Predict the structure.
Amino acid sequence: MASLPKPPPPPRPKTRGNYNCGRCGQPKKGHVCVGPGPGPGGAASPSSSSGAGGEHGLRRALSFDEAGTPSSPEKKPKVEDVDEAELDEEATVDVGARAVSREVMAEVLHRLGPRGVMAAAGVSRGWRDCAGRVWRAAEELRLRVLASSGAGLLAALLPRCPALSRLHLRMESDVDGTTLACIAFSCPSLRTLEITMAADAVNRMTGEDLSRFVSEKSSLSALKIGGCSNLDILNLCSSSLSILWLSDLCSLSKSVMNCPNMSELSLCFTEHSSDCTNLITLMDGLGRTCPNLEKMHISSKQLSNEAVCALENANLRGLFMLSLILGSKITDAAVASIVRSCASLELLDLSGSSISDNGVGMICKAYPRTLSRLLLALCPNVTTRGIQLATAQLPCLQLMDCGMSLCANVKNEKEGPYFGEINGGIRIIRKLSILKRQPIHQKLIIKHGNLKKLSLWGCSALDALYLNCPELNDLNLNSCTNLHPERLLLQCPNLKNVYASGCQDMLIGAIRNQVLNEFAAVEPSLPCKRLADGSKRVQLPQFLKQQVNALCLRPGRFLRGLSNYSCVSFSRRRTTN
């Protein structure tokens, strides 16, 4: 009879584990083990048993004993697996079903704008943490505040950027003292603040709001605010402020700036006739409160010889950039004060003044080795003689602006003269008795080795222009309506940008041919005669020139006629010279 298979043994009942210490063999209840681990046989050594009653120390959660010391096989791998999983989860973020390092993700978000970073924070918890890292590490923020957002956006966003040092705001909503208070509270380490206003936005901050903000921000070094039409007073006191730009100022009743470390100041006043700011008092106080001033820009119709003389009394010997624009009352007497007070100017801007060629001569004698930028736009008393004098006696000159200075469109005294703004617009100013009528036909000859930028926009009195400037790369001839193509010579091999908006089509073609050297490779198609020895070409008769002009101005054949005419004229001039 076959024997039946033995039944399987009954399952072992679940136990609660060992009640004795795995290192010393003592009961675990009320026991703190400080002895070494058990020997190879598993029994505790005598020293281990005696050490149970010795020094009592806190046992670490993970043991780092010798390699031969046994450890708990149940707990150690489990603890290590959990720690690695948590570390991997915290160090990565899911992007398209792939794990990406949070440092890499934060670097990617850093390249987005503020709106993109805010949108990324709503994707997931990991993305929100990466966006938070971007905000916490941000040092510069450029933000456009919409009219619907207002100061609420700044109150919600700026506290996330504790390390912010440079803040640039484009405000399309109104600005008041609350905005400044929010910025002062949220940005403790702010160093640069720039606020520009949109066309429909209104800046309602007062002089007290601005004074409080500057006094509270001890780390502020640069402040640029636009639309400051409601600043009734200007009372600033700061030892750290070095750059101050305020625009659209109007009728300041008090102007005190106690900033000993200020190096750059720009104050732009409105052109309204209601402006009654006392610039003489303002200029006189700058010498005592801002002795280290190096750059100054004042734009106001209230500028006069008295204000410039007050600047001379301020004794600002460190000035090397001076800009006094739209001061139609500034004459050569003010130039004499500038020469006496400023020893080494590198930039001088007297656009909109009434200085003459004599004033230009004083400037050339005072700064022959330092002046590199001279701007004399909107100066109706400056002629081609003064411009040629400046280019001949200022060897370091690199930029010169004479826009609308050689203007032939002078109206009668009742209507007033029309002058172009610095930005190219048109405005009407009151005619002074010292204005001179410019001759219509003027010739300008400039030969300079270092000149890089020349602006002659709106010089409608120019009839001929000859430039020999090897380093010139930017030329502005906008609205030079009376400049003849056959009287234009450009010997500027490095010329890159030429602006000729509003000029004659023939002049534009001549400029193109001279700049691109097209006339050197194209032979003239019109007949021409030579002398008996065949050495030189003679000019075409006057009636043939008129026929060529008529041919070029025909709409259907404009391009072909323009190309032929410009090539003939310039090839003829090159051979005759």
Summary: The chain is about 30% helix and 20% strand. The CA atoms of residues 40 and 222 lie 75 Å apart.
